[in-house]
Amino acid sequence: MVKNLKRYRKDLEKEGNPVSERDDEGRYKYLDFIPVTFLLPADYNLFVEEFRKNPNSTWIMKPTGKARGIGIFLINKLSQLKKWSRDSKTNSFAAPSGKDAYVISRYIDNPLLIGGKKFDLRLYVLVTSYRPLKCYMYRLGFCRFCTVKYTSSTSELDNMFIHLTNVSIQKHGDEYNNVHGGKWTIKNMRLFLEGTRGKEVTDKLFDDINWLTVHSLKAVSGVMANDRHCFECYGYDIIIDNNLKPWLIEVNASPSLTSTTAADRIMKYNLINDSLNIVMPSGELPDVRWNKVPPKDALGNYDLLYDEDLAQADILERDTKSRLGLSVGSRGRDAKSSFTGRPPPTTWK
């Protein structure tokens, strides 16, 4: 994910695309949604250079080939990394096999807390085509909470019940609740934020989440095998910091469909059902020549997030209006719908 996003940013910069614009400090204005990340051992020297710029920062290490929180740990000293390297029976940072590689990312140490506890979001995104890109966001995602209140104290770096939201880890904690499973619906989280932070900033947060989702998919669209017989349902893991900025942590190509609670089972049943209803509308046999967006009543709990065909049509429509000298939203109608008579699609701005 990180490699593709870095390449995507550079490609947009070469094209002079305004989306790749940087601020005075060199950060991307619109594509700064992943923590600074390196691949070890390949990027070790680059990581050391970055670490020395901020020697008091905390970093999180994750094996590239594992899941469910296995093998993850936090460091705040280079000596810890060197010790890990020695303990891994490698005398130097020689290239190991792919399964031994790790990613190391700057730890989000100012997470948004609810009830004093850290949480992340698990969102489901259905992709039915990469070229052109066509994707849907599931409304019934959820938050996963840690069982122990958050602290940034360095003495607690090893306490995974504070730092890792994976249910497979949290369920072994003394404070784990079997009824709700440490999960909260996105709908409830949104209501909480609207009540405590305000509707405007909450809407912007979810707008930013949609933005990063679309661009993460665009970043890999060129390297994915675009088989019209296939679809993918991804599990997006997102952490929100205390400034209500969303950070993309990882994208799971095979998100767990195991249920830990009764509500979880119902939600995941609906997720599978709604996904298949989009892939096979009206329960008909799949037809690779059928590449349209299903009618709204067939989307279930999904919302159309981005349709590249519609987005291109909107651009052409705006260009046509511009040449004809027509104002956007003339006669009180949305510019997206005034030419075609269709309702304005969600085609990320």
Automatic annotation (TrEMBL):
<dbReference type="GO" id="GO:0036064">
    <property type="term" value="C:ciliary basal body"/>
</dbReference>
<keyword id="KW-0963">Cytoplasm</keyword>
<dbReference type="GO" id="GO:0005524">
    <property type="term" value="F:ATP binding"/>
</dbReference>
<dbReference type="GO" id="GO:0046872">
    <property type="term" value="F:metal ion binding"/>
</dbReference>
<feature type="region of interest" description="Disordered">
    <location>
        <begin position="326"/>
        <end position="349"/>
    </location>
</feature>
<keyword id="KW-0969">Cilium</keyword>
<dbReference type="Pfam" id="PF03133">
    <property type="entry name" value="TTL"/>
</dbReference>
<comment type="similarity">
    <text>Belongs to the tubulin polyglutamylase family.</text>
</comment>
<protein>
    <recommendedName>
        <fullName>Polyglutamylase complex subunit TTLL1</fullName>
    </recommendedName>
</protein>
<dbReference type="InterPro" id="IPR011761">
    <property type="entry name" value="ATP-grasp"/>
</dbReference>
<keyword id="KW-0966">Cell projection</keyword>
<comment type="subunit">
    <text>Part of the neuronal tubulin polyglutamylase complex which contains TPGS1, TPGS2, TTLL1, LRRC49 and NICN1. Interacts with PCM1, CSTPP1 and LRRC49.</text>
</comment>
<dbReference type="GO" id="GO:0005874">
    <property type="term" value="C:microtubule"/>
</dbReference>
<keyword id="KW-0547">Nucleotide-binding</keyword>
<dbReference type="InterPro" id="IPR004344">
    <property type="entry name" value="TTL/TTLL_fam"/>
</dbReference>
<keyword id="KW-0206">Cytoskeleton</keyword>
<keyword id="KW-0436">Ligase</keyword>
<dbReference type="GO" id="GO:0000226">
    <property type="term" value="P:microtubule cytoskeleton organization"/>
</dbReference>
<keyword id="KW-0067">ATP-binding</keyword>
<keyword id="KW-0493">Microtubule</keyword>
<feature type="domain" description="ATP-grasp">
    <location>
        <begin position="237"/>
        <end position="280"/>
    </location>
</feature>
<dbReference type="GO" id="GO:0070740">
    <property type="term" value="F:tubulin-glutamic acid ligase activity"/>
</dbReference>
<dbReference type="GO" id="GO:0015631">
    <property type="term" value="F:tubulin binding"/>
</dbReference>
